Amino acid sequence: MKANLIRNFSFNAVQLALNQLFGLLIFYALSTHLDKNTFGQINLVLAIMMVAPYILSMGIDQLLVKKTAAGEDVSFNLSLYCFHVVLTGGLFYLILLIGWLIAPSLLTVYPILLFIGIGKIGMYFSTPFKQVANGLERFKLLAGVSVVSNALRGCALIVLMWVGRLDVQKVVIIFIAGDLAEMICTITLFKLRVGISFLSRWHFRQYLQLLKTALPQAGVVIITSALSRFDWIFIGFYLSSVKLAEYSFAYKLYELSTLPLLAIAPLLIPKFTQLFKNNSYNIDKLGNLARLEMGIATLTILLLNVCWSPVVDWITTGKYGAVNRYTIFLLSLSVPVIYLNNFLWTMYFAQGRLKMIFHSFLIAFGINIGLDLLLIPTYKNEGAATAVLVSLSAQCIFYISKNTVTQLRPAFFNWMVCTLVAAVCILSVNHFIGNTFLALGAAIILFVLMLLITRQIRRGDVVELMNILR
Description:
By secondary structure, the protein is mainly α. The protein has two domains: about 1-200, no CATH class; about 215-470, no CATH class. Helix content is about 85%, strand content about 0%. The protein is built from 19 helices and no strands. It has helices spanning about 1-35, 35-55, 60-70, 75-100, 110-125, 125-135, 140-145, 150-165, 170-195, 205-240, 240-255, 260-280, 285-315, 325-330, 335-350, 355-400, 410-430, 435-455, 460-470. Helix 13 packs across helix 19 (about 460-470). The chain starts with a helix and ends with a helix. The relative contact order is 0.11.
């Protein structure tokens, strides 16, 4: 079992590392070789097309992982979800096309939206196969197909950047080709390696029953997807594409900073489902896992803020570094909140507390949207970052208030202490040390010492982490 865990984690970590590497290449090529206005327009389209598939899934994707991990009829559920993605994806693109035919001047990015939408809908069609692979813990297969799109796009963009022929038309073609290639690879390899067939006969009322079962989670998914990119879309429409380019650059690196969580999170849903199904979990070990996650997350705050301005300004020739220093500081403070939210969400999801989860996202959604509308017009990108921090923190506090396990209550204290330690280290080294490399080394040493003193990290934590996951 330990060997399987390590192997699954390795596959997931490798695909994440490759995806992030190619994602960085894509991001670097677009942000440095396109003007801010064009870069902002592309990010506006990607924000819209990122939100749409999550809304269209209506929560069935996560429900499919849970049902598969619990040993339910995989072929039956896969067939129902495939019908769902074809139906909703086709209707969504038809609505986009009709809107363009009726009012082509309504959106300045409409042509880009329609073309990139072809690839994104194709990617959406492949989600049932990826979710089943996740539920079956076929992480090797999942890792292989998940890097196809980013690998093709990254390599093609770097070549075009190298020869000096990078423009918006070629970017759109590359995005479509990469997404469709991943769709084809996913479906083909799934049929060859997994071999689960589709059911030729099932009744529409069974599909409606699946929708009804996923309804509580559908609200969570819709709200989560809106939260993830509402600020991008609002900045793009209300302020300008240039401000969106600046904000999206900071936000993208903020998302990349959660790489360790992305490696762990897919393993937790099937693991927590099995643990709570068999009532075999160890509460003390879960509490230690939450504490360790806070230490990892707050280290990210430290690294981002100490290195941000000098490194980013050097890479982008002064375009996105200093202008985003306050934005990235506010965003980075929410990294440990994301870790803790994901931990508690996974536990509650495995326990079936979907109604409570929906309420938590409803609270975060209301706060985020309200603060975006209130703060962005005045404080611009910093206002959007503040809204992210406050809404995620409110959701985290709600989760903690609903926790009935006394051993997990110190998680709030761990979050506060680790974040405070990171902030003190950032202020100290930035005030006293001017050299970036010296500041980074001093900050890490000071950070580790302060966590040891406050007992947020302890001897033997690495072994403890492996025991927890085992």
